[in-house]
Structures are given as structure tokens and as C-alpha cells.
Amino acid sequence: MADSTLPQxxxxxxxxxxxxxxxxxxxxxxxSIGAHGFLILASVLxxxxxxxxxxxxFKSLTESVAVPPTLLPSSWHLSNYTNVLDAVPFGSELVNxxxxxxxxxxxxxxxxxxxxxxxxxxxxxxxxxxxxxxxSVLLVPTQLLVIPQYQIMQDLHLLNTIPALFLPGMFSAFGxxxxxxxxxxxxxxxxxxxxxxxxxxxxxxxSIMLPLARPGLLALGLLTMIxxxxxxxxxxxxxxxxxKMTLSVGLANLQGVYLTNYxxxxxxxxxxxxxxIIVFVVMQRRVVEGIALTGTKG
Length: 298
Prior knowledge:
Blueprint: H1 11-56, H2 61-64, H3 79-87, H4 90-121, H5 127-135, H6 146-155, H7 163-166, H8 173-184, H9 188-196, H10 201-212, H11 214-230, H12 233-238, H13 247-252, H14 262-293
Helix pairs in contact: 3-14, 4-8, 4-11, 9-10, 11-14
């Protein structure tokens, strides 16, 4: 009678089979620790300048230029924030910055969405060539366009006016490209069904495609608002009237030739950044969603 007992596995073989299963979780844990450590380090490096700016805004002028520098102020000078209001016309500059940012953002959302819809869904001869030429604008440095744009504003007698701040920034090749990619990610069946129902291009754009592109519009709107709010070169060139300046120009004027009051400058920079921080915190999730959904097709 044959022995039906199964052969016993050597003790060493069982231990050898268990080692890979133990090593895999260990590698995952080590990888997770390394990734989180890298992210924490990157967060500290990115938050470092903002923290230094915040602490400097409460220092005295002597402490801000001390060598070696100190991290914490010996006494907290809240008067730096009130001194900003005395040094620059903060209220009028804030209003000008808001008008500039909102006008640029609204215009880009309108014109870029219409151009993006045309490049994504309308069929016309030479569409690819026209789109390639359109994107070639991204290769041109912004500084090269300053002189012709300034000449146009001068010919239109718009220098030292509020419209001169936002008129050249009403169109964006990047915004058109971003929204085109988002439109291409939408199901083509929606466009075909609307055409079969008798809807024209304008009706399809306003009633169907544009509401579905809301995440992409929010992403482009926030990016445009940030760029417009932080723009310094163009407002500095087209306006020398103190009543028409933006916050970025006003803060730049706080820098002296021989001495700069860094605590007051840092306090003004924080006050100017606060509106953008609030907008970004409120719209962060939708903006990330909009950027993630673009470029998935086309």
C-alpha cells in the first residue's frame, strides 16, 4: 500500500518563499516614507519665502537689514501695515488692479472660448494651418510685443487710462489652446445630436458646449486673474499717472535707490497677495479638476 502522506517541505524552503512577500510591503513602506519626506521638504522650501516675508513685515527697519539676519522680530511692529496706506494710494491701486484683472479675465474667457470652439468643432479649409500659426504666438517673447502694443495705445490716445491696462491682454493663444483641448475631451455625440436637432453653431456653443466647459473656464479664469494681478511691465509702461497705477507698480515704487523699507514693502506685498489667496482657496478644487480634464483627447 502506497504511502499517501504528502511530502514535507523543508523548513528552509518555506522561509525562502515568505521572504519576498515580506520584502514587498517593506519596499512599499520605504517608498511611501521617501515620497512623503520629499513632499514635506518641497513644501518647506516653497513656504520658506512666504514665511520670511510674513515675519519681515513685523520687523523694524534695523532688524530687516541686520547681519546676520534674525528669523523672529524682537518686537512686533503692526504699524508697518498702516504705513503702507500712507506710502502709496493703496485703495485706488487696489481698485485699478481689480478692474484690470476682471476685465482681462472676462475678455479672455469670452474670446478664447469662441476661438477654441471653432478650432475644435467647426470644419473649415486650412484649420490645422491656422491653428498652428495661432500657436506660434506662444513662441514670441512677451517683451517683443511691448513696443508695437505701446505704439497702438499711443495712436488710440489711450495712454494713462484704465483701458490701456487690459486691452492688449484680452486675447490669449494659451487660453485658446487650453480650452480647445477641453472641448475635444467632450463626447462628440453631443455635438452631432445637437446638429441633428437643428441647432446651429452659435446655439451649440452657448447652450451645450460652454456650460460643459465650466471646469476649463474656471482654470483659465484663475490663471488669467493671477497673471493680470501680478503683471508689472505693461502697467509700468503705459501709465505714469498715480491715479491709474496698479498695486504691482505701487509696490515697486516703494523700493528706493539707496534704501528700501523692507518691512513696509513686505507688508504691502502680503496685503496685495491676500485677495489672490482667498480666490485660490475657494476655487482650488475646481481649478485642479479643470486642468486635469484638459488634454485627454486631440
